[in-house]
Write a structure and sequence with these properties.
The structure is a homodimer. The first copy, chain A, is of the alpha+beta class and about 140 residues long. Chain A has helices at about 5-10, 15-30, 35-45, 50-65, 130-135; strands at about 65-70, 75-80, 85-90, 95-100, 110, 115-125. The longest helix of chain A is centred in the middle third of the chain and has 13 residues, at about 50-65.
Chain lengths: ~140, ~140
DNA sequence: TATAAATTTATACTTTGTCAATATTTATAT
DNA sequence: ATATAAATATTGACAAAGTATAAATTTATA
Protein backbone atom coordinates (compact mmCIF):
# COMPACT_ATOMS: atom_id res chain seq x y z
CA UNK A 1 0.00 0.00 0.00
CA UNK A 2 1.20 3.49 -0.88
CA UNK A 3 2.03 5.86 1.90
CA UNK A 4 0.69 9.24 1.00
CA UNK A 5 2.16 10.56 4.21
CA UNK A 6 5.62 9.56 3.07
CA UNK A 7 5.16 11.15 -0.33
CA UNK A 8 4.25 14.42 1.36
CA UNK A 9 6.96 14.26 4.02
CA UNK A 10 9.58 13.64 1.38
CA UNK A 11 8.74 17.08 0.00
CA UNK A 12 8.55 18.70 3.43
CA UNK A 13 4.80 19.13 3.25
CA UNK A 14 2.98 18.58 6.46
CA UNK A 15 0.72 15.60 5.82
CA UNK A 16 -2.63 16.85 6.99
CA UNK A 17 -5.72 14.72 6.56
CA UNK A 18 -7.02 16.96 3.75
CA UNK A 19 -3.80 16.74 1.79
CA UNK A 20 -3.72 12.98 2.17
CA UNK A 21 -7.33 12.70 1.02
CA UNK A 22 -6.73 14.78 -2.10
CA UNK A 23 -3.65 12.78 -2.97
CA UNK A 24 -5.41 9.48 -2.32
CA UNK A 25 -8.32 10.56 -4.46
CA UNK A 26 -6.05 11.40 -7.38
CA UNK A 27 -4.14 8.15 -7.02
CA UNK A 28 -7.28 6.02 -6.98
CA UNK A 29 -9.27 7.95 -9.60
CA UNK A 30 -7.13 8.29 -12.66
CA UNK A 31 -9.70 10.18 -14.66
CA UNK A 32 -8.02 13.59 -14.83
CA UNK A 33 -10.61 15.34 -12.68
CA UNK A 34 -10.99 19.08 -12.34
CA UNK A 35 -10.52 20.75 -8.96
CA UNK A 36 -14.25 21.00 -8.50
CA UNK A 37 -14.84 17.35 -9.31
CA UNK A 38 -12.24 16.45 -6.70
CA UNK A 39 -13.86 18.78 -4.20
CA UNK A 40 -17.34 17.35 -4.75
CA UNK A 41 -16.19 13.74 -4.60
CA UNK A 42 -14.19 14.12 -1.42
CA UNK A 43 -16.98 16.11 0.15
CA UNK A 44 -19.31 13.13 -0.18
CA UNK A 45 -17.50 10.99 2.34
CA UNK A 46 -15.65 13.80 4.06
CA UNK A 47 -18.18 16.59 4.24
CA UNK A 48 -16.28 19.27 6.15
CA UNK A 49 -13.63 19.88 3.52
CA UNK A 50 -13.85 23.28 1.87
CA UNK A 51 -13.42 24.26 -1.73
CA UNK A 52 -10.54 26.61 -0.94
CA UNK A 53 -8.64 23.84 0.82
CA UNK A 54 -8.89 21.65 -2.25
CA UNK A 55 -7.68 24.44 -4.49
CA UNK A 56 -4.85 25.30 -2.09
CA UNK A 57 -3.85 21.68 -1.78
CA UNK A 58 -3.83 21.11 -5.53
CA UNK A 59 -1.60 24.12 -6.02
CA UNK A 60 0.74 22.96 -3.31
CA UNK A 61 0.89 19.43 -4.74
CA UNK A 62 1.50 20.59 -8.27
CA UNK A 63 4.14 23.12 -7.25
CA UNK A 64 5.90 20.22 -5.62
CA UNK A 65 5.43 18.05 -8.70
CA UNK A 66 3.53 15.43 -6.75
CA UNK A 67 0.58 15.86 -9.08
CA UNK A 68 0.53 17.23 -12.57
CA UNK A 69 -1.61 20.13 -13.67
CA UNK A 70 -3.06 19.45 -17.12
CA UNK A 71 -3.97 22.44 -19.24
CA UNK A 72 -7.09 22.01 -21.39
CA UNK A 73 -9.30 24.36 -23.37
CA UNK A 74 -11.62 24.48 -20.39
CA UNK A 75 -10.61 23.90 -16.78
CA UNK A 76 -7.36 22.66 -15.32
CA UNK A 77 -7.27 18.95 -14.66
CA UNK A 78 -5.06 17.01 -12.27
CA UNK A 79 -3.19 13.76 -12.55
CA UNK A 80 -1.19 11.70 -10.07
CA UNK A 81 2.34 11.74 -11.45
CA UNK A 82 4.01 8.45 -11.99
CA UNK A 83 5.76 8.31 -15.27
CA UNK A 84 5.93 10.90 -17.99
CA UNK A 85 3.12 10.71 -20.53
CA UNK A 86 1.00 13.04 -22.61
CA UNK A 87 -2.65 13.96 -22.72
CA UNK A 88 -5.35 14.15 -25.33
CA UNK A 89 -8.38 16.39 -24.82
CA UNK A 90 -11.65 15.63 -26.60
CA UNK A 91 -13.60 18.74 -27.55
CA UNK A 92 -16.83 16.74 -27.72
CA UNK A 93 -16.98 14.88 -24.42
CA UNK A 94 -14.25 16.91 -22.67
CA UNK A 95 -12.53 13.79 -21.44
CA UNK A 96 -8.76 13.70 -21.10
CA UNK A 97 -6.98 10.54 -22.26
CA UNK A 98 -3.49 9.40 -21.42
CA UNK A 99 -1.27 9.09 -24.45
CA UNK A 100 1.55 6.64 -24.09
CA UNK A 101 2.85 6.97 -27.63
CA UNK A 102 6.40 8.17 -27.97
CA UNK A 103 6.44 11.82 -28.88
CA UNK A 104 9.52 13.95 -29.40
CA UNK A 105 10.58 15.14 -25.98
CA UNK A 106 11.35 18.74 -25.20
CA UNK A 107 13.71 19.01 -22.28
CA UNK A 108 14.51 22.68 -21.92
CA UNK A 109 14.92 24.91 -18.94
CA UNK A 110 15.24 28.13 -20.87
CA UNK A 111 13.82 29.51 -24.08
CA UNK A 112 14.50 32.94 -25.53
CA UNK A 113 15.46 34.25 -22.12
CA UNK A 114 12.44 32.87 -20.26
CA UNK A 115 12.81 30.34 -17.49
CA UNK A 116 10.85 27.17 -18.29
CA UNK A 117 9.16 25.36 -15.44
CA UNK A 118 7.21 22.83 -17.45
CA UNK A 119 6.33 21.89 -21.00
CA UNK A 120 3.28 19.98 -22.05
CA UNK A 121 1.88 18.92 -25.31
CA UNK A 122 -1.73 19.83 -25.68
CA UNK A 123 -3.21 17.41 -28.15
CA UNK A 124 -6.75 18.47 -28.94
CA UNK A 125 -9.25 16.66 -31.09
CA UNK A 126 -12.12 14.20 -31.10
CA UNK A 127 -11.69 10.96 -29.23
CA UNK A 128 -12.16 7.42 -30.47
CA UNK A 129 -15.47 6.97 -28.66
CA UNK A 130 -17.02 10.19 -29.94
CA UNK A 131 -15.86 9.37 -33.47
CA UNK A 132 -17.62 6.02 -33.29
CA UNK A 133 -20.84 7.51 -31.98
CA UNK A 134 -21.21 9.76 -34.99
CA UNK A 135 -19.41 7.75 -37.64
CA UNK A 136 -16.80 10.46 -37.78
CA UNK A 137 -19.37 13.00 -38.91
CA UNK A 138 -17.58 15.92 -37.32
CA UNK A 139 -16.14 18.67 -39.39
CA UNK B 1 -3.98 46.45 -46.90
CA UNK B 2 -5.37 43.16 -45.72
CA UNK B 3 -8.89 42.26 -46.72
CA UNK B 4 -10.54 40.67 -43.74
CA UNK B 5 -13.62 40.17 -45.88
CA UNK B 6 -11.64 38.03 -48.26
CA UNK B 7 -10.15 35.96 -45.47
CA UNK B 8 -13.64 35.23 -44.22
CA UNK B 9 -15.18 34.60 -47.63
CA UNK B 10 -12.43 32.14 -48.48
CA UNK B 11 -13.71 30.00 -45.62
CA UNK B 12 -17.37 30.52 -46.50
CA UNK B 13 -18.02 32.68 -43.47
CA UNK B 14 -20.37 35.54 -44.02
CA UNK B 15 -18.26 38.66 -43.40
CA UNK B 16 -20.41 40.59 -40.96
CA UNK B 17 -19.14 43.79 -39.46
CA UNK B 18 -18.63 42.13 -36.07
CA UNK B 19 -16.57 39.33 -37.49
CA UNK B 20 -14.45 41.77 -39.44
CA UNK B 21 -13.89 43.88 -36.33
CA UNK B 22 -12.79 40.91 -34.24
CA UNK B 23 -10.43 39.75 -36.94
CA UNK B 24 -9.05 43.23 -37.46
CA UNK B 25 -8.52 43.64 -33.75
CA UNK B 26 -6.55 40.41 -33.52
CA UNK B 27 -4.48 41.32 -36.56
CA UNK B 28 -3.59 44.74 -35.22
CA UNK B 29 -3.11 43.80 -31.58
CA UNK B 30 -0.72 40.91 -31.40
CA UNK B 31 -0.77 40.64 -27.65
CA UNK B 32 -2.60 37.32 -27.27
CA UNK B 33 -5.70 38.83 -25.70
CA UNK B 34 -8.41 36.87 -23.94
CA UNK B 35 -11.97 36.88 -25.26
CA UNK B 36 -13.00 39.41 -22.67
CA UNK B 37 -10.14 41.76 -23.42
CA UNK B 38 -11.16 41.64 -27.07
CA UNK B 39 -14.76 42.30 -26.14
CA UNK B 40 -13.93 45.29 -23.95
CA UNK B 41 -11.57 46.82 -26.49
CA UNK B 42 -13.93 46.54 -29.41
CA UNK B 43 -16.79 47.81 -27.28
CA UNK B 44 -14.97 51.09 -26.75
CA UNK B 45 -15.25 52.24 -30.31
CA UNK B 46 -18.10 49.95 -31.30
CA UNK B 47 -20.38 50.00 -28.31
CA UNK B 48 -23.27 47.84 -29.47
CA UNK B 49 -21.31 44.60 -29.76
CA UNK B 50 -22.27 41.95 -27.24
CA UNK B 51 -20.10 39.61 -25.31
CA UNK B 52 -21.78 36.53 -26.78
CA UNK B 53 -21.04 37.70 -30.30
CA UNK B 54 -17.36 37.97 -29.49
CA UNK B 55 -17.29 34.50 -27.99
CA UNK B 56 -19.26 33.09 -30.93
CA UNK B 57 -17.04 34.80 -33.43
CA UNK B 58 -13.84 33.61 -31.77
CA UNK B 59 -15.09 30.04 -31.80
CA UNK B 60 -16.06 30.32 -35.44
CA UNK B 61 -12.71 31.83 -36.39
CA UNK B 62 -10.68 29.26 -34.51
CA UNK B 63 -12.71 26.33 -35.84
CA UNK B 64 -11.85 27.66 -39.26
CA UNK B 65 -8.19 28.08 -38.30
CA UNK B 66 -8.28 31.78 -39.08
CA UNK B 67 -7.20 32.51 -35.54
CA UNK B 68 -5.44 30.26 -33.08
CA UNK B 69 -6.78 29.42 -29.66
CA UNK B 70 -3.94 29.40 -27.12
CA UNK B 71 -4.40 27.23 -24.09
CA UNK B 72 -2.95 28.63 -20.86
CA UNK B 73 -3.27 27.77 -17.18
CA UNK B 74 -5.93 30.48 -16.93
CA UNK B 75 -8.11 31.74 -19.77
CA UNK B 76 -7.95 30.99 -23.46
CA UNK B 77 -6.05 33.51 -25.53
CA UNK B 78 -6.30 34.25 -29.22
CA UNK B 79 -3.76 34.93 -31.91
CA UNK B 80 -4.03 35.88 -35.55
CA UNK B 81 -2.54 32.96 -37.43
CA UNK B 82 0.22 33.71 -39.86
CA UNK B 83 3.04 31.28 -39.54
CA UNK B 84 3.45 28.44 -37.12
CA UNK B 85 5.07 29.35 -33.84
CA UNK B 86 4.85 28.45 -30.18
CA UNK B 87 3.85 30.24 -27.03
CA UNK B 88 5.28 30.80 -23.61
CA UNK B 89 3.05 31.62 -20.66
CA UNK B 90 4.43 33.50 -17.65
CA UNK B 91 2.87 32.44 -14.37
CA UNK B 92 3.85 35.75 -12.77
CA UNK B 93 2.56 38.39 -15.16
CA UNK B 94 0.29 36.06 -17.18
CA UNK B 95 1.63 37.40 -20.44
CA UNK B 96 1.94 35.11 -23.44
CA UNK B 97 5.10 35.41 -25.54
CA UNK B 98 5.68 34.20 -29.06
CA UNK B 99 8.47 31.65 -29.28
CA UNK B 100 10.16 31.48 -32.63
CA UNK B 101 12.80 28.95 -31.62
CA UNK B 102 12.77 25.71 -33.56
CA UNK B 103 11.09 23.02 -31.51
CA UNK B 104 10.56 19.45 -32.63
CA UNK B 105 7.39 19.47 -34.68
CA UNK B 106 4.57 17.07 -34.11
CA UNK B 107 2.54 16.66 -37.27
CA UNK B 108 -0.02 14.00 -36.51
CA UNK B 109 -3.65 13.65 -37.43
CA UNK B 110 -4.29 10.59 -35.30
CA UNK B 111 -2.99 9.25 -32.01
CA UNK B 112 -4.07 6.01 -30.34
CA UNK B 113 -7.35 6.06 -32.25
CA UNK B 114 -8.21 9.69 -31.53
CA UNK B 115 -8.56 12.24 -34.29
CA UNK B 116 -6.15 15.14 -33.74
CA UNK B 117 -7.31 18.61 -34.69
CA UNK B 118 -4.40 20.57 -33.24
CA UNK B 119 -1.29 20.17 -31.17
CA UNK B 120 0.29 22.90 -29.13
CA UNK B 121 3.23 23.06 -26.87
CA UNK B 122 2.38 24.64 -23.59
CA UNK B 123 5.58 26.16 -22.30
CA UNK B 124 5.01 27.50 -18.82
CA UNK B 125 7.46 29.38 -16.68
CA UNK B 126 8.67 32.80 -15.63
CA UNK B 127 9.42 35.31 -18.31
CA UNK B 128 12.57 37.33 -18.89
CA UNK B 129 11.06 40.53 -17.56
CA UNK B 130 9.74 39.03 -14.36
CA UNK B 131 13.07 37.30 -13.77
CA UNK B 132 14.85 40.62 -14.04
CA UNK B 133 12.48 42.37 -11.67
CA UNK B 134 13.24 39.94 -8.86
CA UNK B 135 16.78 38.90 -9.74
CA UNK B 136 15.47 35.44 -10.41
CA UNK B 137 14.36 35.06 -6.85
CA UNK B 138 11.49 32.73 -7.69
CA UNK B 139 11.50 29.14 -6.56
C1' DT C 1 -42.97 42.42 -49.83
C1' DA C 2 -43.57 38.37 -47.07
C1' DT C 3 -41.16 34.71 -45.22
C1' DA C 4 -37.37 32.14 -43.72
C1' DA C 5 -32.71 31.88 -42.23
C1' DA C 6 -28.86 33.70 -40.06
C1' DT C 7 -26.94 36.73 -36.86
C1' DT C 8 -26.83 39.57 -32.81
C1' DT C 9 -28.38 41.11 -28.41
C1' DA C 10 -29.51 40.93 -23.62
C1' DT C 11 -29.76 38.57 -19.70
C1' DA C 12 -29.33 35.06 -16.63
C1' DC C 13 -26.75 31.40 -15.30
C1' DT C 14 -22.89 28.04 -14.42
C1' DT C 15 -18.35 26.98 -13.71
C1' DT C 16 -13.88 28.03 -12.27
C1' DG C 17 -11.00 30.10 -9.35
C1' DT C 18 -9.36 33.77 -5.87
C1' DC C 19 -9.29 36.47 -1.70
C1' DA C 20 -9.66 37.91 3.00
C1' DA C 21 -11.19 37.41 7.53
C1' DT C 22 -12.04 34.19 11.04
C1' DA C 23 -11.57 29.88 13.28
C1' DT C 24 -9.19 25.81 14.24
C1' DT C 25 -5.37 22.92 14.71
C1' DT C 26 -0.56 22.04 15.49
C1' DA C 27 4.02 23.08 17.16
C1' DT C 28 7.10 25.34 20.43
C1' DA C 29 8.79 27.37 24.49
C1' DT C 30 8.19 28.05 29.05
C1' DA D 1 0.49 21.26 30.90
C1' DT D 2 -0.38 25.77 29.11
C1' DA D 3 0.29 30.07 26.65
C1' DT D 4 1.71 31.74 22.41
C1' DA D 5 2.83 31.67 17.74
C1' DA D 6 2.60 29.59 13.31
C1' DA D 7 0.40 26.94 10.02
C1' DT D 8 -3.93 25.17 8.09
C1' DA D 9 -8.68 25.10 7.12
C1' DT D 10 -13.25 27.17 6.78
C1' DT D 11 -16.60 30.33 5.26
C1' DG D 12 -18.53 33.31 2.33
C1' DA D 13 -18.13 36.84 -0.80
C1' DC D 14 -16.32 37.95 -5.01
C1' DA D 15 -14.45 38.03 -9.81
C1' DA D 16 -13.49 36.13 -14.10
C1' DA D 17 -14.54 33.08 -17.84
C1' DG D 18 -17.71 31.08 -20.51
C1' DT D 19 -22.47 29.07 -21.88
C1' DA D 20 -27.40 28.96 -22.91
C1' DT D 21 -31.67 30.71 -24.32
C1' DA D 22 -35.12 33.53 -25.92
C1' DA D 23 -36.15 37.69 -28.23
C1' DA D 24 -34.88 41.06 -31.58
C1' DT D 25 -32.70 42.45 -35.64
C1' DT D 26 -30.67 41.90 -39.99
C1' DT D 27 -30.04 39.61 -44.34
C1' DA D 28 -31.28 36.58 -48.00
C1' DT D 29 -34.74 34.47 -50.92
C1' DA D 30 -39.01 33.34 -53.06
Amino acid sequence: MKSYMQILRKKNIKPTIHRIKVLEYLDKNRVHPSADEIYKSIKEYFPTISRATVYNTLNLLSENKIVEEIITPDALRYDFVEKQHHHFYCTECRKVYDIHAELPELEIDEVEGHKVMSVQYCIVGICKECLEKTGGGFK
